[in-house]
Amino acid sequence: MMVFVVDDLLKLPLDLSVEVLQAIAERAEDEGLATEKAVRNRVLKTQMRYEQGDLSESEYRMTILDLRSRLEKLKAEG
Q: pLDDT at position 57, please?
């Protein structure tokens, strides 16, 4: 039992680091979609990933809906 506690304590900083890095990556990705051109490029990349089998249909649809929403918001702001 003690071994599991020590193991968990040793892994905690690594687990937290991964979560922080993922949050930073997501934030940077969101900020990278600040122009219509960037969103359109992301749509093309998403379509390619779907066609190559890297995305499931549900992931593809959710991503495309999000990108379309961002594009409409950018057009309304512009």
A: 94
